[in-house]
Amino acid sequence: MRDLYQRLDLPPDANQQAIAKAIEHCQHNTLKQDAAAVLGIPEHRLAYDQLHATLSDIGQLRSRLGLTHGAHWQGSVANDFSLPPDQTRSCQDDLAERISRAAMLYNRWQRFRVSGLLVATLLTVAGMSLAAGLAWAMRLASA
Which fold would CATH assign to domain 4-79? Predict the structure, then answer.
């Protein structure tokens, strides 16, 4: 579907006088006929505007996902509602990064916890051995 506003170099909220003037100055007969039939009749324009808003939203979504038409579609009617790829990160990429970071921190904690438990166990055994040795030495000294 053609973006008649884009093709006539008009904003979607243009008034009827601006649309009539743009149609009158249009050099392409087919575009001129389509625009007059769609934008020149208020009921048709209302239906077109609803569809235009939906297609614009889809174009923005495709842009956010990095989807664009191939080079052979560039400049054609099929590319009217396409936008250049949006370089901002998608929510999916942000979520994947957060999950990866959480997994890395969890794995690091697991390694620390295992080695911490090992150290704690060794220190406990060493402390108990030292306490037993001191008790044994005090018992020998009092005997």
Answer: Helix Hairpins (1.10.287)
